[in-house]
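Reviewer 2 asked us to include a model.

Predict the structure of this chain.
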Amino acid sequence: MDDHGAEPGKAGHIWRAAAQGLAHLDRVLIAALGLGALLGAVLLWWQIDGRIHALESVLANQIRLRASAIDVQMQAAQGHLEALRQRAELFYAEYPAPAEMPQGSLLTAFLASNPGNDPALPYSLDRLPPPYLTSQIGNLIALSADDAAQQPEISRADPGAWRQEAAMMVQLLPLMAVTQKVVPEVRRLLYISRAGMVALHPWVRSDETDLLLQLATTPAFRHAGPALNPQGGPVWTLSAPDQPDRMVTLSLPLTLEGRFLGSFTLDVPLAGIREKLGSVIRTDAAMLLVDGNGHIIASSQDGPAPALLDDVLPGGLERLAGGGPLHGFNQPFTVSAALKSAPWHMVYVTPPFSLLLVAMQDVVISVLGFVASLLVLLFIVRRLMQRALKVRDQAVQAERNARAAAERALTDLRAAHDELDFLNREKTRFFSLVSHDLRGPFNSMLGMTQELADHAPRMSAEDTADFARTVHEMARKVFDLLENLLQWSRVQMSGTPFAPMVFPVRDVVGDAVRDVASAALAKDIQVLDAVGDRWVLADRTMALAILRNLLMNAVKFSHPGGVVHVTSRAQGDRLEIAVTDKGIGMEPSQLQQLLRAGPGASRPGTQGETGTGLGLTLVRDLALRHGGELRLESEPGRGTIASFTVPLSADPAETRRLAALGVE
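Predicted model (structure tokens):
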């Protein structure tokens, strides 16, 4: 009893130990899966972080390149203004006294615009002297003395100094035209003088601009003055936002011996600078051009841009003071680059999480590519294993096929033996038929010619002619027999080359009708050609042999005075040619006998004509060479229809004409 009671307790202990082992195994498996997931997450984040830094580097390089492009444009404009200022300083160095200034045609024309020096009239170059043209040079306009006196910002010096400054400005006009050509982005060039004069390019009539009335109040002139620009450096200003065609203006003051004379100014359309910003890859990002006060000058985004950088990036320029890129999970990613020639910054701003999403997308694509490559590798290994198994199965199957092939070869050998035996019997029957058909005509010819040789001097002319016709008819029968024999043997031995060509079927039908004309005339039979103007692709010699044999049979089995028709009809891409007679026709048994392969006995015609027995056999073989077949339809006493088909073709001349029309 104790032993039996111990058995269940031992089994329960084993089951409990197994359950504990499985539970321990589950914990190890869960821990391994958790550790693998953590490691995968770390590697994935490492890849994403590296991708983010790579994107930041690419964007920073793009910002620097685009900032350099705008810098080059601004430096070129600033350099040409500096050249104009140096030319003005050189003029005063060459002609320090008003009495020494040159008197050119432009200055003369300018002074002649107000010959009486009327204080109520302005001065201008509205009428340029020859050879100057308005498209080549700008205008010089001066306020009248009365208008200049009413503006406190205008300080007109004595007449001599005023004329000296006018002479300097006249000499600057050609140089301003050159600057306009070299810097095509510039919309307008100005030199605004404190004496109430302005030189501008391109040329515009004085009464078509209100520049003189705003001369001393323009932002470019005021900001270039010593009050707002004590250092005398270049000054960049921007037109009001409400103006439809906003301009960026660069001003450079002209100061001699501490005295502010005026400012050189050029206007650049803001649209041209906006084009220099270029496009951004992401539609939710923006490329901005910001001035030193945080105002947004231009934006790459379509539509109206925000007024301040603070509206896009919290903190504005203060956050960009460090110079490096700014990014965070909940903050916009920002890269900036300062311009060297202007107090502006180029700023690239993307929404929060933007680069993170791009980096995650790239990494996910890479992971998917790796997984796809692994799957492809597994697929290739699987296919290789399947191919190895398939090779083994093919070897087994090859052995079976070899055994089956040997059996088929034995069967084919037996069939070939039977076929050779059949061909041998056919050959014997063929030679028997040929020897019989040749012996009869030759015996008759030998007897007739011997009779002529022995009794020709004593025979009448009519008997001699009758003998000659009989000999000719027998010779013709022998010739037809030999011709069909040669054609049939060549087809059987593949000795006749198949040379298809394009030709009108009417031509070969006409030749065949002429070949049987004498036989048809002897029986008063009409052969009517109704094949039409169709073109075929066939061997002309073989087609002629087919038609000649069919026509000879039709004449042979037609009653005297009958009619034989040759017709054709299209059947898809093939042409069926039929020879129809109203002769004696055939019984179904006779029709089946004629359709058998190989030469057979010939039936006599309506007037006892004999044949070779090879005609229809030859026709059937030649029709097969053209991809067709010989068809016979016959009724006793109602005639026979013999037809065959050949490939249809198009008229080459018509094809060339249509091709020429298509080319034209």
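Residues 140 and 199 are 4 Å apart (CA to CA). Residues 77-269 form a domain with the Beta-Lactamase fold (CATH 3.30.450.20). We have added this to the supplementary material.
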